[in-house]
Amino acid sequence: MNKAENTKILPGEIEKQREIIKRLRRWNDSQYHYSQRRRLALVVTYGCQQNESDSEHIRGILGEAGFDFCDSAADANLIIYNTCAVREGAEQRVFGNLGALKHEKQKRPGLIIGICGCMVQQEHITKQIKQKYKHVDIIFGTHTLYRLPQLLWEAVSERRMAVSVGHTGGMIAEDLPVRREGGVKACVSVMYGCNNFCSYCVVPYVRGAERSRKPDDILKELRQIAEEGYKEVMLLGQNVNSYGKDLGGAADFSDLLGLAAEVEGIERIRFMTSHPKDFNDKLIKTMACCPKICSQLHLPVQAGSDKVLRDMNRGYTRADYLEKISKVRSMMPEMAVTSDIIVGFPTETAEDFEQTLSLLQEVRFDSVYSFIYSKRTGTVAESLAPVLADKVVHANFDRLLAVQNQISKEINDSYLGKVYEVLVEGESKKDPSTLTGRTSSGKIVNFTGAPDMAGKTVSVKITAAQTWSLFGEVQQ
Question: Which of 412, 332, 409, 319 is nearest to 362 (CA)?
Fold first, then answer.
């Protein structure tokens, strides 16, 4: 059996978990008969869209196990934190929440508390939770989400902490239950893990090596979400450009995009995240030739200095990145380009930061997700001493935001007076009397319209522009 054939968790193991789900549902039904209220679950997600996708599977499992859902920890009988390990701040928020729940658990001994995701895939974090947060009932990592039913049953039936944070040897769990929030957009993971080992990043250690799902499994899921009424799909992976390298040449990411575009009912396709070193001409041509692929590209650059890029182990130079952007815009002038930037990487000097600012002005990103460097245990950069003082790094961060905000506003101003096709997502959360949707380029557009427009694509003339959103009028 070759590697391409041996990518799935054995069906017998998945069936075992499904049987436990039935057992949990019977247990939940008995509790409902006693209390006249369905047991409620709260799933809190930190981090990236991959984590959001994982949480949809967690909710799917819990829903089939008989749980309803709530938005308040005070109402919940089961609380699960799906965690992120990319930045220290997210970890500290999780620890703070776990600490607060200790008192809640004392008041309500039947409360079940779980923690999963990237944080607990780190050995030192799991050890800390076991030692300091003994009121936690369930701990599972990024590789063992499929074992949630078994862990939950152990926690409720044996009254002990149930832990599973091992690796699955590169195998993928298919056909897990999924519970999406509804609407017009859905996320589909096409691969897991990362082989890049950027010097600042913990993802390869917590998500493991790159593992691609088989095209047939992905297409099956895409057809299902199309049947459920979703119009737009986001294909997810830590590095989607590497898709298929472990499948023996069956398909690469460009091929997968072409196959996805053939799924009837899917009107728009987006994807993230792309790594610049693997972003090639074939993918650019596929994007340019396929109308369903949205005119939005998220291509993290991280820094504008070749020295810092080398220290980050990014695998490309500033010139390489600019050449790729030039190719994209020569073939797709309307393409909106967004990026990630780290400010204050340990080896970054004042001159290096100025090169990052100049890159922003040269590329003119539509928007940038910018972060101050966060030291991560186990990474190569952990041992590097910072060149710049902390107050200088924060001042540079503020400067970068000011430059990018101006660029973002100028780009949005260029939309004024033009008409764009907007996929209507529904009512605005800020103003229920207003509808909201997105252009192919990912711009949020707010406008007045009938509620039955949700899920439809309408023509909207842009009448006003803010830094992060647009306003318009529906064209009849």
Answer: 319
Which of 2-16, 34-48, 149-163, 371-385 shows the lowest mean pLDDT across its residues?
Answer: 2-16
Cβ atoms of 14 and 146 closer than 8 Å: yes
What's this model's pTM, rounded to 2 decimal places? 0.94
User: Burial code of 315-328, b = ≥16 C-beta within 10 A, e = fewer?
Assistant: ebebebbeebbebb
Q: Which residues contact 237 (CB under 8 A, 6 or more apart)?
A: 50, 189, 190, 191, 192, 243, 271, 273
The answer on 25 and 152 residing in a single domain is yes
Structure tokens at 387: 């060149």
List the CATH number of the domain containing 208.
Answer: 3.30.750.210
Look at strands 457-465 and 419-427 and give their pairing. antiparallel
Contacts of 298 (CB under 8 A, 6+ apart): 272, 273, 274, 337, 338, 339, 340
Domain match, 191 and 149 both: no
pLDDT in tens, 134-147: 999 999 999 999 99
Do 151 and 60 reside in the same domain of the chain? yes
CA dist., res. 363 & res. 44, Å (int) = 36
Kindly report, residue by residue over 304-327, the tens digit of the pLDDT.
999 999 999 999 999 999 999 999
Q: Are residues 38 and 152 in the same domain?
A: yes
- Give the span between the Cα atoms of 192 and 340, in whole angstroms: 20
